[in-house]
Design a protein that fits this description.
Layout lengths: L3 E7 L5 H18 L2 E7 L3 H7 L6 E4 L10 H9 L8 H8 L1 H10 L7 E5 H6 L7 E4 L10 E3 L18 E6 L4 E8 L2 E9 L7 H5 L5 E3 L6 H18 L4 E8 L4 E7 L9 H8 L4 H10 L6
Parallel strand pairs: 1-2, 1-3
Antiparallel strand pairs: 4-7, 5-6, 5-7, 8-9, 8-11, 9-10, 11-12
C-alpha cells in the first residue's frame, strides 16, 4: 500500500487545538497502516492549502473540527479540486452545522427534538426568553463551544453582550433532563450507544477533552427497547441529512422519550474521543477505523 493521504487539521475555529490532536492521531495511525501521509496544518489561506495539495493526493482525511472545516467550506474546495475526502459532503456538512436547519430536517423525518427558539443575543442578556431550565447555544459551533445551561435559581445571565462572539442570533432550547447518550454511525450502521457521565454539570468542552472530565459507559445501561431506539434514531438522522462515512449523534433520554440534539459530521479522533471507543467495542482497532474511512472517501457528484 502506497496511497498518498493528506490529513487536514488545525484550522482557525474555536476547536483548532482539538483538531490538531485528532489530526496527529490519525496521521500516526495511517502511517502505521502503510499509507504515505502528508499532515497539513490548515491556515486561513486557501491558496497555500491548494499548494500543499499538489501533487494531488489520492485522498484527504479531513480532521478539521468546527466552522470552515466541518460546515461545507473545505468540502466545497475539495469538490472543485476533485480530491475525494472522508466524512460527509458539502450539503450534509452545512446542514449538520446549522443547528436550526438540522432540527427541522430531523423533525420532518419523525425524530423527536427539543423545543427551541432563535432569538437576538440582546434578548438573552435582558432576561429569560423561555421557561427554565433551558440551554443557550450558538447556531453553528461544535464541541459544546459557547453552550450554557440556565437552571432555576441562576442569578446571572448566560453571557453578556460583550462576551458573545458567535453572532447576533442565539438558539435557546428546552433542557432535556436525564441520560446523555451518543452513537457513532459508520456507513449506514449504528455501532453502539455510549452513556456519558460527568461531574461538571453537563458535557461541556472541558468534560469532552480533559483527562478525567467524563466517564463513558459502552454499551450504555439501557433497556433493550430503548437501546435499539437510540440506535435507530441515530442511523435515521445520519440518513436524513445525507451524511456519509462516519458521523456521531448526540441524544438525551428523559426516561420516556429519546431526543436527538445534533449530528457531528466530523467527530473527534482524540484519545478521549467517543467514536474510536465505540469502534473498539465492536472489534475495530483505531487503525482499522481510519483505514476504512480512507478507503470510503468520496467527492460530491
Amino acid at each position: 500500500m502506497n496511497r498518498h493521504v493528506a490529513v487536514l487539521m488545525g484550522g482557525w475555529s474555536a476547536e483548532r487545538e482539538v483538531s490538531l490532536v485528532s489530526g496527529a492521531a490519525v496521521a500516526k495511525a495511517l502511517k502505521k497502516t502503510g499509507y504515505r501521509v502528508t499532515p497539513i496544518d490548515v491556515q486561513r489561506d486557501m491558496g497555500a492549502l491548494m499548494t500543499r495539495l499538489y501533487p494531488r493526493p489520492d485522498a484527504v482525511f479531513n480532521a478539521l473540527h468546527g466552522r470552515y472545516g466541518e460546515d461545507g467550506c473545505v468540502q466545497g474546495l475539495l469538490n472543485i479540486l476533485d480530491i475525494p475526502y472522508t466524512h460527509s459532503g458539502l450539503l450534509a456538512s452545512a446542514l449538520a452545522m446549522d443547528k436550526p436547519m438540522a432540527k427541522c430536517l430531523f423533525a420532518a423525518a419523525g425524530i423527536p427534538v427539543a423545543e427551541h427558539k432563535i432569538v437576538r443575543r440582546d434578548d438573552v442578556v435582558q432576561g429569560d426568553v423561555m421557561a427554565r431550565p433551558y440551554v443557550v447555544k450558538p447556531l453553528n459551533e461544535g464541541s459544546s463551544v459557547g453552550v450554557t445551561i440556565v437552571l432555576e435559581g441562576d442569578d446571572t445571565p448566560p453571557f453578556t453582550d460583550a462576551n458573545w462572539p458567535f453572532g447576533e442570533e442565539v438558539m435557546v432550547e428546552r433542557f432535556v433532563p436525564g441520560k446523555e447518550l451518543t452513537v457513532a454511525v459508520m456507513g449506514d450502521k449504528a455501532l453502539a450507544v455510549t452513556e456519558i457521565t460527568t461531574d461538571r454539570g453537563f458535557y461541556d468542552y472541558d468534560a469532552k477533552y480533559a483527562e478525567g472530565g467524563s466517564a463513558h459507559l459502552v454499551p450504555a445501561p439501557l433497556e433493550t427497547a430503548v437501546y435499539d431506539e437510540v440506535m435507530r434514531l441515530s442511523a435515521l438522522a445520519h440518513e436524513a441529512l445525507g451524511c456519509r462515512g462516519v458521523s456521531r449523534a448526540d441524544l438525551r433520554y428523559d426516561g420516556e422519550t429519546v431526543y436527538l440534539l445534533e449530528i457531528n459530521t466530523q467527530p473527534g479522533m482524540t484519545h478521549t474521543s467517543l467514536v474510536p471507543e465505540q469502534a473498539a467495542h465492536v472489534g475495530l482497532s483505531f487503525e482499522e477505523l481510519v483505514s476504512w474511512m480512507v478507503e470510503n472517501v468520496e467527492c460530491d457528484p
